[in-house]
Design brief:
Layout: E1 6-11, E2 14-21, E3 28-30, H1 35-38, E4 45-49, E5 58-70, E6 73-83, H2 90-94, E7 100-102, H3 104-107, E8 111-115, E9 120-124, E10 135-138, E11 140-142, E12 145-153, E13 159-167, E14 174-176, E15 178-179, E16 182-183, E17 191-198, E18 201-215, E19 218-228, H4 234-237, E20 244-247, H5 248-251, E21 254-259, E22 264-269, E23 284-289, E24 292-301, H6 306-309, E25 317-318, E26 320-321, E27 324-325, H7 331-337
Parallel strand pairs: 2-7, 3-6, 13-20
Antiparallel strand pairs: 1-2, 1-5, 3-7, 4-5, 5-6, 8-9, 8-21, 10-22, 11-12, 12-13, 12-18, 14-20, 15-16, 17-18, 18-19, 21-22, 23-24, 24-25, 26-27
Length: 338
């Protein structure tokens, strides 16, 4: 759903619980605080987390009491942050119950192959002798997050080398945050947009296109990109850390293999490789009622978008589409229509 990868895992022998697989996070994050009681967790340490977005610090607990298993594979004593409040509301946006996010400690424990077109996830021991098909891209692992270097042409036709975090848990293609210590320059045709939700709330900015980006031997033109407000992202993470973020809308064009132990990833084009990069032209985002999976509501409306001009408002309920009752549609079908 929305190019995101959801896998069932067991925690301390209980489950399964659906978790979002995300290269962009370090510790495991539990977004559903009810798991504290379900798992009988004790010895939790309170902390505050400050993330991306317009908002305050959020309260969380830290623990290393958790062991996770996926099929026959096990990861013990995973550093974990448990949010005291579910600020992501992932379940409503993907159409199924999601309990958290699994990141670095999964990818660092295995060689992970993702087939977006085949809806398959294959993970192997780093010591196993497996054939890694695809074009090898060097990975830079910093602070438990993977980065790659790419060649890029900016909207002002300047050629640069950019450092991007690889973020398979983000549904967008690309976001460009900073360049030379300042906000990344906007295309002249960029439009105001809401770019999603971070730990500290909504992320505002613009959407436009990057003329050219080259990763290894693969070149793409007119790639849709978000340009988050500088103070919401780059100023918080440190503008010298990276230039931007490459997400699942880009990665889904490849069969990908992550080999953290050897600081490498492999890209093999799949049947989606030549698809154009499109942006949601309706200007709305839809979510599902967590208590009734046949009710759908408007989560946000882009300013000056076609939906905004038609008078559609946040929290409006969708009753029908194309003269068909809304219960005939899945969340993915609705999202694809918009």
């Amino acid at each position: 759903m929305k190019n995101l990868i959801i896998i069932p895992i067991y925690i301390n022998g209980k489950g399964p619980y659906n978790f979002l697989l995300d290269t962009g996070v370090g510790p495991m994050i539990i977004t559903e605080p009810s798991l504290i009681d379900t798992l009988g967790l004790k010895n939790l340490r309170s902390t505050k987390i400050y993330g991306l977005g317009k908002g305050e610090e959020i309260d969380a607990y830290l623990t290393q009491e958790l062991n996770a298993s996926v099929k026959e594979a096990h990861i013990d004593h995973i550093p974990t942050a448990i949010l005291k409040q579910d600020v992501f509301n992932l379940s409503s946006y993907v159409g199924k119950k999601v309990y958290g996010i699994l990141g670095f400690y999964f990818f660092d424990s295995f060689v992970v192959k993702i087939s977006y077109t085949g809806n398959r996830l294959i993970f192997s021991s780093p010591n196993a002798k497996i054939r890694k098909k695809g074009h090898k891209i060097p990975l830079i692992i910093e602070n438990k997050r993977p980065y790659i270097m790419v060649d890029m042409v900016t909207p002002q036709q300047k050629q640069i080398e950019a450092k991007l975090i690889v973020d398979c848990g983000a549904s967008h293609a690309l976001t460009m945050e900073a360049l030379d210590g300042k906000a990344f320059p906007l295309p002249s045709s960029a439009i105001i947009a809401n770019l999603g939700v971070g730990l500290s709330g909504p992320i505002s900015g613009h959407v436009g296109r990057i003329p050219s980006i080259t990763i290894g031997k693969f070149n793409f033109v007119n790639v849709t990109s978000g340009f988050p407000a500088f103070e919401a992202v780059a100023a918080q993470i440190g503008y010298n850390t990276r230039n931007g973020n490459i997400g699942a809308e880009f990665l889904r064009r490849f069969d990908t293999i992550y080999d953290y132990q050897n600081s490498s990833m492999y890209l093999k084009p799949n049947s989606s490789y030549r698809q154009k990069f499109d942006h949601d032209m309706s200007g709305i985002e839809v979510y599902i009622d967590p208590f009734d999976n046949k009710r759908y509501f408007i989560a946000r409306v882009e300013p000056e978008s076609p939906a905004d001009k038609l008078g559609i408002k946040e929290q409006d309920e969708i009753i029908s589409l194309d003269f068909k009752p809304i219960e005939n549609y899945s969340l993915e079908q609705i999202t694809n229509l918009f």
